[in-house]
Amino acid sequence: MPTPSLILVPARFKSGKLYTPVATTSGGLVLGASGDFNVTRATTATRVNASGFIEVVASGIPRLDYYTSGGTAGCPALLVEPSAQNSALQSENFTTTWAATSLNITSGFTSPTNSNLGALFEASAAGGRLRQSVTLTSGATLDFSCFAKLGTLSSGVSLVFQDGTATNYTSGACQAFRLDTGQLASSGSTGAGFTVVRSGIENYGNGWYRCNLAVTMGYTPATPHIMIRPTATLTSSIPVSVSGDTCYIFGAQLETGSIATSYIPTTTASATRNADVITLSGAVSGCIGQTEGTIYLETSSLVSGASDLFCFARATTNTVSISKNSSNRIQATVYTSGPSPALNIAASGTVLGNLKIAVAYKTGDSALYINGVQIGTSSTAFSFTAALNQININPTVFFEGIGNQRISAPALYTTRLTNAQLAALTT
Question: Structure pTM?
Fold first, then answer.
């Protein structure tokens, strides 16, 4: 297998920089510091650290995230996300701003941040609940999430969007979560106007799960709320608690979109996390194949929305990218001029799970491989109209699970690898 001209293994960094262990030109010239990625994010953000706990990192610091779906810390991957805003107020303090009905709240329990920010919810009657008034607008898709841990009696927790009063609602949608098994339980809706588009549960270790429910609004409610209930039992599509049902709660989040991005703490006002922008430009033109080359990328599975996953070799409209289209299919795309691609190879179906992707581009002989399988080839001829001199790890993509982009081991070759090499590389 040829040696890549550039490889990024998320490990060494400082504020504003992510160091590249290998960055050379096709002639063997070592790029040194000019081969390191620039990192821009004007706000703090959270990650899962090497001990498996959620922590806040400063602005401009690349996020090496150790999260694994099994709930234990794994190898670091680069966490890259678009801008997002948490509009659920007091995300860690449920005794203010939130309104409790038949619910006792006790603060001071260990949370996924390894601090005493978790809260114990205990229903004192069948209607035990906690809710907050929010803005829900017709046509909007919103995701409501929180971290939850099993208490006593109850097997879980339920998240609810509703239009109604403190004791009942005529329209709404809910999702129950089994905190004893880490699985989705029943979901339901009542009335009209709340369409469930997605729900999920992910293991964050130490008994904590992140639960999320996304809905699309068919109208603008008069009395919109989000609600948390210590129960996994639904009756007539509405959660029902039993006196004594308990669960531990931390980190409520309400944001635009169909998935939950990394946790954004709030107090008395909504909070925004700016996008992670990670780029490399200038001297790297020598390590990009100008007439042929190969892109390799390891990442996670995808969900809705068309966007670049990893885009490089960009000079105005001259671009080679690994992306996903509006049908959630991985594709290889080459642009040489104008808005239409000169070449496009797309998977025939949605690809989920951990992905190893390789794109070989060469006029008249291009190919896309995913997890050892040839997805497609192209004999289309193309020619770039300007130098390829920029590499982007694009922050506008969302992924499966609770949903952010975790990138590991992207690499670049200045030659078109053989099909056998592409298969071996992605296996």
Answer: 0.90
